[in-house]
Design brief:
mainly alpha; about 400 residues
């Protein structure tokens, strides 16, 4: 009976924090699904849509270093509130803006808020999740975001029609209402997170809502050489996923002749299945250790990519696509936990900033490299090259992590 009470106590702060993250994601998932429809209704072309997406990424990259500094210097509660305010302001501004400059400014602000939120999540989980549930907490956080993303996307698709039917407004007004209503979830996540972070403390760190006064300006962003090495290897490992992820829709369209609707159904189903398997993955990591589970994924991911490269029919290609698609979301929480475990509590914001910078850069660099490979060769060449990158980067990364100084 005492054991059950201890488990409930362990999850007392983690559960509400995951709920806050799910709320934060409402505006982001709605934006990802609806915003191109909004820009299309404004008469904006595909080139501008790409520019708006790039502006959101740029805003995130610009904010990564300041986000880590603010987290280490002023505490997680303030950092989370700033993230929710910046994110909501950018999402709302983008939903109301019609000029090009206004749309791009809103996208950059939303990207900055999103980056600040992502930098904050990992260190907070390290602080509020006891070691006996930490791996579960990291994996369940990603699973909750993936699962709720399906719900928020479905809601975003239904809200414009519902609003137009209710008010008689135009279609663009309905899309705008859907964007704003979901952005309200991002705004509400701030007070919920503060309620948890303002009262939660752990023996291993200062209260997560309290400022950290030990830093000395922007020098708090400096990390040890070993951390820099690990972050660089994470970048190489993640390049493989960055190379292939943007092109799977084209793969099924061009190679197997699938319709856009059928591809969308596969992607949505894969997201739901991944969320379920991440829960099991968190349990496995908790029992076997995150490094051992990471090694398993590092060995498996290149094999799945090679299988996809040489898959003959659509059925086999679908199986290999589904299998390789498990690795990136499954390894992300493991990498967060392993990197932050090597950092002192006072430098976790800085480490989280650099880790998220590696994620963003791997996406930008990987997509560019993948596009060049695909343009010059074939999907088989793309997948096999990505498999080689994954094998080399993953092997070096797990070897370095195994040499933990402790």
């Amino acid at each position: 009976m005492g054991s059950g009470a201890e488990k409930r106590s362990s999850w007392a702060g983690v559960g509400p924090f995951l709920a806050a993250n799910v709320l934060f994601g409402a505006g982001l998932f709605a934006h990802a699904f609806l915003y191109n429809f909004y820009l299309d209704a404004l008469g904006r072309g595909e080139a501008f849509m790409g520019l708006a997406a790039s502006s959101m990424t740029a805003g995130g990259l610009i904010a990564l270093a300041p986000a880590g500094f603010l987290l280490d210097r002023f505490g997680a509660a303030r950092s989370y509130v700033l993230a929710s305010l910046l994110g909501t302001a950018g999402l709302a501004w983008g939903a109301l803006a019609e000029s090009g400059a206004g749309i791009l400014a809103g996208a950059m602000m939303a990207g900055a808020g999103t980056a600040t939120w992502r930098v904050t999540m990992g260190p907070v989980l390290m602080a509020i999740a006891p070691p006996d549930i930490r791996s579960r907490a990291f994996s369940w956080n990603v699973a909750a975001l993936l699962a709720s993303g399906s719900v928020w996307t479905a809601a975003a698709g239904a809200l414009p029609t519902w609003w137009s039917d209710l008010t008689g407004a135009s279609s663009i007004a309905g899309i705008r209402a859907g964007l704003l209503l979901c952005a309200a979830g991002t705004l509400l996540s701030g007070p919920l997170a503060v309620r948890i972070l303002g009262v939660t403390a752990t023996p291993s760190s200062a209260p997560t809502g309290a400022p950290n006064r030990r830093g000395h300006g922007w020098r708090t962003l400096a990390v040890r050489p070993r951390i820099r090495l690990l972050v660089g290897l994470v970048l190489i490992w993640m390049l493989a996923a960055g190379m292939v992820l943007p092109f799977f829709n084209l793969y099924f369209l061009r190679v197997h002749g699938w319709s856009v609707e059928r591809i969308g159904l596969l992607f949505g189903l894969m997201q739901a299945v991944t969320a379920l398997l991440l829960v099991a993955g968190g349990e496995l990591a908790q029992r076997a250790g995150p490094l051992r589970v990471l090694v398993g994924w590092v060995l498996f991911f290149p094999v799945a990519l090679v299988g996809l490269a040489f898959a003959g029919g659509a059925l086999l290609a679908t199986v290999w696509y589904a299998l390789q698609g498990l690795a990136p979301p499954a390894t992300n929480p493991l990498l967060d936990e392993l990197l932050l475990d090597e950092a002192a509590a006072s430098e976790r914001g800085a480490v989280s900033s650099w880790r998220n910078a590696a994620t963003e850069l791997s996406g930008l660099m990987g997509a560019s490299a993948g596009g060049l490979l695909l343009g010059a060769g074939s999907f088989a060449a793309l997948f096999t090259t990505a498999a080689l990158v994954a094998a080399v980067g993953g092997g070096l990364l797990t070897r370095a992590l195994a040499r933990h100084p402790g």
